[in-house]
Amino acid sequence: MNFPMKAILLLNSALCCVVHANDVLDALEGKKKSSEIQVAAAPAGPGRDASGALTYPETTYPPSRLDAVWSKAVVYENEANPWVQRMAITAFFDQQAAFGNAEVDGVGVVPEKSVDLDGTRSRRTRLGARIRAFRNTDIEANYEFSGSDDQRGIERLKVRTEFMPDAAVTFGKFRPDFGTEYSIEPENYLYPDRSMLTNMIAPDQTLGIRVDFKRKDWDFGLGWFSGDANPYFPGIEGEGSLLFNMKRTLVEGSGSSLSRVVWHFDYLHNFDGARSGTTPRFSVAGRRSANGNQLVATNPLFHDLVSTGIVLDRGRFSFMGDFMIAKGEGAAYGLTLAPTYWAIPGRLNIIGRYHYAVSDDAGGLISTMGTSSDPAFDSSPFFIGDEYTSFYLGANYHLYRDQLILMGGLERAVLGDGQGADFNTEAWIWHAGARMSF
Questions:
Q1: H or E stretch covering 27
Q2: Are the CB atoms for 382 and 284 separated by under 8 Å?
Q3: How buried is residue 246: exposed, middle or buried, by Cβ count under 10 Å (0-12/13-18/19+)?
Q4: Is residue 39 predicted with pLDDT exceeding 70?
Q5: Does the pLDDT of residue 352 top 50, yes or no?
Q6: Is 90 within 8 Å of 73 (Cβ atoms)?
Q7: Spatial separation of the C-alpha atoms in residues 306 and 321, rounded to whole Å
Q8: Whose CA is closest to 192, among 13, 378, 348, 408?
Q9: Contact 233/173 with Cβ under 8 angstroms?
């Protein structure tokens, strides 16, 4: 297909206009090494925690003129105060643009067609606050202004209290931590959107309570979540869902060379079945798909969700791998492999992602494409099929730490409909976006 010229111009402008041209040219010509134009200091040498175990150092940054701007988010800080130690304003803005077309195969007398995916959307616009109180309690609240009517409202309102040195309880409205991608806060996620299967099966934020416990390099969590998906104040409805989390973090290495591997296992059981409003987070029942105008008779129904995978960090390189299973009235399986590499540490991050999902059921996979692959955010248009493959390659330019980022990349998505009416769909999509958070 022919890509829109405006997409190419927008992507090139977004990535090129912000890079320090002289430094990059010097690096390309061999006059400088990329390490000589770092803006983020290299991680410090290996440290150890109270038990003597190795800790993986996080990247530190030199002073910036923008530090004064971001520091204003903290409106109060006093460790000596026994009641409130810290108060901060939080915000997150995510603007995304996509340019491309989804080409749908024709079947019989139905001709092939092209679905326009061009669009620009505010994916998230959040404002909230964080409070540290009593030296053991964190209070967090966010209000969401973007998305569908079901997404706009109180995104979270939760309290986490450490009742023991290695144990805490969290209650209120918040998002269940299921899978690697869904557990990452959106402002810290490196891609335009989560992978298709994650968005399809992940449970909605709702009223819940969770107890977590840490034992050496192991973390455990057990939580119950309501089946009500009210955008403001969910109630306690039905039997809800039970979520179990298990994670192990290993840090290994010698000298200043360290690696960190985080393995996780998550299991969620939905007791409510078709009565649940949170699993899945969207409803397309009674609507028709964009590929073939196929009617979706019933919404996907999942009783059991499983996710297991690893996250690896070593120097400039990171890797995320996750395998997911969703079973209920039908089943879906998926795999995500996502490597990243700092071409210029602290500034330019090259990112890639491969995602594959399959279902034995006709129309068992539901996906949107373009500015959102999340049908809970925007399900118009949506596509159905039984086998999905996508490749994404892009770059993120960090203007200020991880809190002001320009994004750009190219995605190839293929949705097979072999179990259905053979309305197979293929798309090339240019992505560009900007994120700001504090």
A1: helix 21-28
A2: yes
A3: middle
A4: no
A5: yes
A6: yes
A7: 14
A8: 408
A9: yes
| Cα–Cα distance, 213 to 222 (Å, whole number) | 9
As a three-state string, the secondary structure of 66-86 is: CHHHHHCCEEEECCCCCCEEE
Give the model confidence (pLDDT) of 175-203 as tens digits: 999 999 999 999 999 999 999 999 999 99
> What is the model's pTM?
0.86
Residue 304, judged by CB atoms within 10 A of its CB (0-12, 13-18, 19+), counts as middle
Given a contact cutoff of 8 angstroms between Cβ atoms, the answer to whether 15 and 344 are in contact is no
Confidence of residue 238 (pLDDT cuts 50, 70, 90): confident
Task: Report which residue type is found at 322.
Answer: D
Please say whether the dihedral angle defined by the alpha carbons of residues 170, 171, 172 and 176, taken in this order, is positive or negative: positive
Q: Cβ contacts of residue 278 below 8 Å, gap of 6+?
A: 203, 204, 206, 225, 226, 227, 228, 229, 241
Q: What is the distance between the alpha carbons of residues 330 and 300, in angstroms, rounded to a whole number?
A: 8
What pLDDT, on a 0 to 100 scale, did the predictor assign at position 411?
97
For 244, the token pair is 């179990």
Beta-carbon contacts of 307 under 8 Å, excluding residues fewer than 6 positions away, are: 178, 179, 180, 264, 265, 266, 322, 323, 324, 325
Distance of CA 302 to the CA centre of its chain: 21
Both tokens assigned to 229: 């998906």
Q: CA 387 to CA 425: how far, in whole Å?
A: 10
The burial of 404, by beta-carbon neighbours within 10 Å (0-12 exposed, 13-18 middle, 19 or more buried), is given as middle
User: What's the token pair of residue 21?
Assistant: 């041209």
- 279-321 tens-digit pLDDT: 998 889 889 999 989 999 888 889 999 999 999 999 899 999 9
User: What domains does the chain contain, in order, with CATH numbers?
Assistant: 48-437 (2.40.160.10)
Segment 199-222, tens digit of pLDDT:
999 999 999 999 999 998 999 999
User: CB of 260 within 8 A of CB of 58?
Assistant: no
Q: Rounded mean pLDDT of 26-55?
A: 52
**Which single residue is written with the structure tokens 């009617």?**
295
Residue 264 is encoded by which pair of tokens?
A: 């996780």
